Amino acid sequence: MTSVLEDSAFVRACRGRDVPHTPVWFMRQAGRSLPEYHKIREGIGMLESCRRPELVTEITLQPVRRHQVDAAILYSDIVVPLAAAGVDLDIVPGTGPVVAEPIRSEADLGRLRPISGDDVGFVDAAVRMLVGELGATPLIGFAGAPFTLASYLIEGRPSRTYLKTKAMMYGAPELWHALLDRLADIALSFLRTQVAAGVSAVQLFDSWAGALSEADYRQYVMPHSAKVLGGLADAGVPRIHFGVGTTVLLGAMGEAGADVVGVDWRTPLDEASKRVGVVQGNLDPAVLFADWEVVAREARRVLDQGRAAPGHVFNLGHGVLPETDPDVLTRLVALIHEESAR
Ligand code: CP3
Fold first, then answer.
1. Among positive and negative, which fits the CA dihedral 272, 25, 285, 242?
2. Rounded to an integer, what distance in angstroms lies between the CA atom of residue 337 and that of residue 330?
3. What angle do CA 4, 50, 197 make, to 5 degrees?
4. Beta bridge partners of 204
5. Residue-averaged pLDDT of the chain
6. What gap in Å lies between CA 285 and CA 334, rounded to an integer?
7. What dihedral do alpha carbons 241, 246, 249, 250 form, nearest 10°?
8. Which of 171, 186, 225, 318 has the most Cβ atoms closer than 10 angstroms to its Cβ?
């Protein structure tokens, strides 16, 4: 990594170093909420759009230009490497990932082969293009964590209860661990490709891990996420680990091998930072729909609570909601930069 990026506010904060201002970026900043995104995506399927490096580059840059955020996140999706691994799936507008034949048995595992860099050459190309375009702005690579990926593969579509997922976890633990082990290898390979191509940090999204108790998380999930994060220990880039509804899991998610733990809006950052080191978060994305005075007050509260941590990367507690007014995001970035300037 070049020294320019090692010296960026974002990477410095991830490493718990002093910063000129609190860095800010938003999960799901690329896409959904931006009119220029909807325009450029017209007539192009979601998965197809992820496989076109020029388009990926443009969509990734859109929120950076508009909001002046401190980091870009690669435009892709957590299911992209699963499609590359041979799973027949689609991302259905308004629904999310839908898997044609869900994985429910030992025999089904055969439909999930390992991936190599060659299977995701379009990601390598997009990251290289982006690193050139972004200059001093760091690029965040990402993957879905084994549990969250497994939930889509087993349920076949987004779920509220994770019933089939938990049925396999409790009822067929050998099959469960074999599946999660494969998913860990796929996620690790996807992240290594992005690191080799030049991303400055990685985020492992375990969005739905909050469905589990801490004991079950430690037994059934943590070893697999630890394989992914541990596999990047010598990659030289900060590793961020994020999930929703994870108040009881934060310590374990840090122990899995994260340098930064992403916190949703339920846990105050000063409390979270007692259990993990550097934190990322955690303004409730719904607050952005309130009057500006409320947004500003809540953002200041998050900044204040973040001061208790050895490092703080400002973010939302989950992704930008599609109906969000992008101008509020732009204004929020300016406010964070102003209020946190040292
Ligand atoms: O700025 C960014 O974060 C863009 C890159 C990105 C996408 N998906 C693009 C996308 C990232 C980091 C993701 C991660 C992702 N995908 C997660 C983890 C983050 C989280 O929100 O918890 C999850 C669980 C998925 C699975 C997924 N993909 C769902 C549930 C959906 C449907 C709901 C939605 O977001 O609209 C998708 C589709 C998707 N992924 C879209 C985008 C821009 C919308 C599709 C479209 O615009 O047609």
1. negative
2. 11
3. 35
4. 143, 241
5. 97
6. 17
7. 50
8. 225
Cβ–ligand 1 contact at 91 (below 6 Å): yes
The residue whose CA has the least distance to atom 29 of ligand 1 is 96
Convert the pLDDT of each residue in 135-147 to its tens digit.
999 999 999 999 9
Q: Determine the pLDDT at residue 210.
A: 98
DSSP string, 68-131: --S-EE-S--TTHHHHHTT--EEEETTTEEEESS---STGGGGG-----GGGGHHHHHHHHHHH
CB distance 219 to 249 below 8 Å: no
Weakly modelled stretches of the chain, pLDDT under 70: 1-3
3-state secondary structure of 184: helix
The token pair that represents 309 in the structure block: 């941590």
Nearest CA-CA partner of 150 in 103, 188, 114, 106: 103
* Ligand 1 atom closest to residue 50's alpha carbon, by position in its atom list: 9
61 close to ligand 1 (CB < 6 Angstrom): no
The residues that are catalytic are 28, 32, 41, 77, 152
Distances (CA, A) of 84 to 50, 78, 116, 190: 12, 11, 9, 10
How far is it, in rounded angstroms, from Cα 62 to Cα 37? Answer: 8
Query: Taking a C-beta distance cutoff of 8 angstroms, is the pair 303, 9 a contact?
Result: no
CA of 41 to the centre of ligand 1 (A): 14
Amino acid identity for residue 282 in this structure: N
* Ligand 1, atom nearest to 29 Cα: 1
Torsion sign across C-alpha atoms 177, 181, 56, 312: positive
- Asked whether the beta carbons of 117 and 81 are under 8 A apart, the reply is no
Two structure tokens written together for 106:
């030992």
The CA distance from 214 to 47, in Å, is: 34
310-338 residue pLDDT tens:
999 999 999 999 999 999 999 999 999 99
What is the pTM for the complete model shown? Answer: 0.98
Assigned token pair, 18: 């002093």
Q: Which atom of ligand 1 is nearest to the CA of 74?
A: 5
Token output for 257: 């091998």
